[in-house]
Every structure is written in structure tokens, then in C-alpha cells.
Amino acid sequence: MSAPNSFNHPPSAPLSLSDKINRMTAQLPPDQVTLAQIIDIVGDEGLLILSILLSLIFLVPVSIPGVSTVFGLAILLIGCTRLVRGKLWLPQKIGARPLPAAKLAAGFQQAMRWLQRLEKVSKPQRLPLLVDSAFFNVLNNLVFILAAVLLMMPFGLIPFSNTLPAVAIIFLAIGMMQRDGGSVLLGHAANIATLLYFAAIVWGGLAVGQAVTA
């Protein structure tokens, strides 16, 4: 029988979110890892922690081709799962796609200091109405899904195009986990900033195209 993972069976002393993620990343295999393996490490009950883990890689300038599509789709499915209160399902092709474990682990470790800073912003039980009511529960999960879609947009070579939606996902996940309406509001703000940034990118591209063809 395999050993229980550290999330589903935490030790008696409480662990911070960054400590939990550090323990999870330490369990990554040395060469290649699949998204299905990452989900097995985290466990079924850790979907929001999994979302944070998958978003961390975009807080640092680590370029791993295809990761935003794979991780963004997984986060999208997590959001849909939470919205309908179902069980997470991944397409076999996505779940079995091999990813470079060493690069991912290095990226997670570099991003951990940013997560620790984001954790300090959070205050459990702050503005609980924004996470407890049925209306806001649906709204927050819809915004979470939107952030995942924005993460998957084909702007990967443009600075901050992955970082902004990743920050939105992390704040939303922390807020929903800790019943912190303040963190949820920061997630909404990051999503709005992402939409404005992408609109500026599209507008700038159209302006350049018109100037070239004029």
C-alpha cells in the first residue's frame, strides 16, 4: 500500500500553504511528470491547492512550451468541477502528457517566495459574505474559470500575459480556501487588469497592422 500523501493526512502541527506546496513538489519524480501524477500527489480534496500549485510556475520567467495550455485547461476543469460540485475529470491526452519535472520543480521553488508574500496579504474570515453566500460562490467560481481561460490565451511570449491571470487564480483560490473576501477581491482586480492588458495588446496589434498596411 502506498504511503498517504501529505495533504490528505497532514501532521499534527499546522502547515502553511507554502509548506504544503513545498512538500508536494518534493514528491515530484526526477525526470518527467504528468498532470495526472501531480493530481495524485495533491489528492482529490486539494483542488484549490492544486490550482495554486499549477499557477505558481507563471510567477517567474520560466519558459516551458505548452505548459500554459495544459495547466490552464486543468485549472479550467477544476473551476467547472467546483461550479457543478462534481469530481475532477481530465482528458487522458492532457493528463498523460509528459512535462519536464526538473524545470517545473525549479520554477515552483523560485515562485515560493512570491507565494509566501501573497499568503501574508490574506486574512482568514475577512469579509466572509463575499465567499459564503450562494451568489458570490457562483460568481467567484465563474471568475476563477475566466482567469483559467485568460491563462490559456496565446500571448505567452508577451511579458506578464501569464502572470496576471495566474495571480488572479492564486488570490481567488486563497480567498475561497480561507474564507477571505479581501483576497477574492484582489483576484477580481487581477482579472480586470488582465482583461485591460489583453485589450491593450489587441488594440496595439491592430494599430501596428493598420500602420503597416497604410
Q: What descriptive keywords fit this protein?
A:
10 helices; mainly alpha; globular; 214 residues; two-stranded antiparallel ribbon; 2 strands
What does this structure look like?
The protein is an all-alpha fold. It has one domain. Helices cover 66% and strands 3% of the residues. Strands 1-2 form a two-stranded antiparallel sheet. Helix 8 (134-151) runs antiparallel to helix 9 (163-178). The longest helix is centred in the last third of the chain and has 33 residues, at 181-213. The N and C termini lie far apart (69 Å). The relative contact order is 0.13.
Protein topology:
Layout: H1 17-25, E1 32-34, H2 35-42, H3 47-56, H4 67-84, H5 92-95, E2 98-100, H6 101-121, H7 129-132, H8 134-151, H9 163-178, H10 181-213
Antiparallel strand pairs: 1-2
Helix pairs in contact: 1-6, 3-4, 3-9, 4-8, 8-9, 8-10, 9-10
Mean pLDDT: 80
Distance between the termini: 69 Å
Largest sheet: 2 strands, antiparallel
The proportion of strand residues reads: under 5%
Sequence of secondary-structure elements: HEHHHHEHHHHH
| Helicity range | 55-70%
The global form is globular
Strand tally: 2
Count of spatially separate domains: 1
Low-confidence stretches: none
